[in-house]
Design goal:
The complex is a heterodimer. By secondary structure, chain A is an all-alpha fold. Helix content of chain A is about 65%, strand content about 0%. Classes of the chains: A mainly alpha, B alpha+beta.
């Protein structure tokens, strides 16, 4: 096999995540061409195209335009499939015509950038369609748009590969059965459908952000992918709405703190103990810019409020100078959107920082739905912290002990054990 | 140069199956590893050639060569995905080189075959005809 273009680069210079993102683009575009019922076939074709790159680039060099190369290889393999598979017999000619492209030089992308951008958005609207089961939306998004394997998804969500595979199959079946159209919704429908997409991306980000499960590297990757996809929405005329910017701001501002969240040994560090010079200034700047863009129109979403909280933290040069009054007012707002006890617990932390640990304990006991927190280790960790600050080591120790019984995660256990030690008088 | 070294053919089997369950991200990483492995050998002057093979092809058989069947061979675990001709001191050395091949970690296999110093048919011809007559034939 000969390369189509004069090779130029070294494999090691291939852009980071190139395969992953080209895969997301091509799966989306081929899904439009094949029809959404042939989504799996589109995935297989793209996988094969990437394999061809893997087999040839190390030996012949990387083509000048790797993205166009992958596009062309995907197109050629797709043409083979269309000619071979009976299901395409009726629309074979139409599909082939669609894929012929410009026919210009090998370095010219076959599909236009705008077309691909639209296809990826359509794919997001498919994966996050309200008719797709909520828990499957995130998995399907990771699979089709971010090119995560079944194994990687199950590692991230701490489930078995079989369970993930089943979930994906069912989601695809649902899409087929319901004949969900491959399109960017318009008008009234757009608002509702965009909400579903944003919510799924928010869940995706949280899945990566939360410290309580899975492989750390995979989780950071998931945060970046959530940002990448939300960024696509923030750039597209149909979806760049204030709440899209708010969600993106919230993701950027929170992920800016990721590098400082653990110490050299992978142990968790609280906000007050983090080295703020390790916060990613570039992400903070981008976050603030999108927060500014989110402040138009008259809508105030949960994302706005959460981004506001994250911005307060990022703006404080140190823990002591954090604007807790502002943060508390955001939590009061947030409680109106979301009456979850976890929000109320976080609000109590803001109360304690503003008015002292006793007020914090009072705020915790005022949580009407606290019963739901009885198996939540952070509930006890927070109470333990308040008691410790009140110089009640005995009460604090009992809380930390209880928290320890409720978590298996090594980094959290190490943290809680340290706290427990601090409770015993020296 | 490499007078004492012998030629070995590495056949990469498992062909086009080993990468099926890898994610694009993993494929990109493996690509980097293959490149490093291959360049390492090339720098030491141990590579005489090599190419990946396309999965589709034809099988010609039958006495008169008229039986031609199509690939694809992609389904078969025995499919050869590519070959490399290397130089090594002995078979153990060649095996050691093959052991560094990245696709092994994903279920591929490498067949290591010494290249015969002399083609058996040529050897036979030499015996029958005597050496001198074959020199002109490029032996």
């Amino acid at each position: 096999m000969t390369t189509e273009a004069p090779p130029s680069g070294d494999v090691s210079q291939v852009v980071e995540h190139l395969f992953r993102h080209e895969s997301g683009k091509m799966v989306a575009t081929l899904t439009r061409i094949f029809g959404v019922e042939h989504l799996t076939l589109a995935e297989d074709v793209v996988q094969e195209a990437l394999a061809r790159a893997l087999q040839t680039w190390p030996f012949y060099g990387v083509p000048q335009n790797p993205s166009a190369w992958i596009m062309r290889a995907s197109r050629n393999l797709a043409l083979d499939v269309v000619r071979r598979e009976k299901v395409f017999r009726d629309k074979e000619d139409a599909i082939i015509h669609q894929m012929k492209g410009s026919g210009a030089g090998v370095e010219t992308p076959i599909f236009a950038a705008e077309e691909i951008a639209d296809d990826r958005l359509r794919m997001m609207f498919i994966c996050c369609h309200p008719l797709v089961p909520a828990e499957a939306r995130v998995a399907l998004t990771l699979k089709t748009l971010c090119g995560f394997s079944v194994k990687e998804i199950s590692r991230a969500f701490l489930t078995t590969e079989a369970a993930t595979a089943k979930q994906l199959t069912r989601a695809k079946q649902k899409i087929r059965e319901e004949r969900i159209p491959f399109e960017i919704p318009a008008g009234e429908d757009l608002t509702r459908r965009l909400d579903s997409v944003l919510q799924s991306l928010y869940l995706l980000f949280n899945e990566g952000y939360k410290a309580s499960s899975g492989d750390r590297l995979v989780r950071a990757d998931i945060c970046h992918e959530a940002i990448y996809l939300t960024q696509l929405l923030a750039e597209h005329p149909a979806t760049r709405q204030p709440r899209t910017h708010a969600l993106l701001a919230l993701m950027l501002l929170n992920s800016a703190r990721l590098p400082a969240r653990v110490d050299g040994e992978g142990n968790l560090l609280l906000l007050q103990d983090q080295d703020r010079t390790r916060w990613d200034r570039q992400l903070i700047t981008r976050g603030i810019l999108h927060l500014a863009q989110s402040a138009s129109g008259d809508e105030l979403t949960e994302y706005h409020v959460q981004a506001g909280i994250a911005a307060c933290h990022c703006a404080a040069p140190d823990y002591a100078s954090t604007d807790w009054a502002q943060i508390l007012s955001y939590y009061d707002r947030l409680a109106q959107f979301d009456d979850s006890p976890v929000v109320a617990l976080n609000r109590a932390v803001a109360v304690a920082n503003l008015r002292g640990p006793a007020a914090g304990i009072e705020a915790v006991s005022a949580i009407s739905t606290a019963a739901k927190l009885k198996d939540y280790h952070l509930y006890y960790a927070v109470l333990g912290e308040f008691e410790l600050r009140l110089d009640h080591p005995k009460a604090a120790a009992a809380h930390f002990q209880k928290a320890l019984e409720l978590t298996d995660l090594k980094s959290e256990r190490t943290f809680l054990e340290g706290k427990l030690k601090a409770c015993t008088p020296r | 140069m490499n007078n004492e070294k012998q030629e070995y053919l590495l056949l990469f089997r498992g062909g086009n199956n080993w990468y099926k369950d890898l994610s694009p991200e993993e494929l990109q990483q493996v690509m980097g590893k293959i490149k490093t492995w291959f360049d390492g050998l090339a720098e030491k002057g141990l590579v005489k050639g090599g190419q990946p093979l396309v999965a589709e092809g034809r099988i010609v058989s039958g006495k008169d060569g008229r039986t031609i069947s199509d690939g694809p061979f992609a389904e078969s675990k025995e499919t050869i995905g590519g070959y490399t001709l290397i130089l090594a001191d002995n078979i153990d050395e060649a095996v050691k080189i093959a052991q560094g091949c990245p696709p092994l970690y994903f279920g591929g296999s490498v067949e290591v075959r010494p290249v015969a110093e002399e083609c058996p048919m040529m050897a036979h011809a030499r015996e029958v005809l005597g050496e001198k007559q074959l020199v002109g034939a490029g032996a």
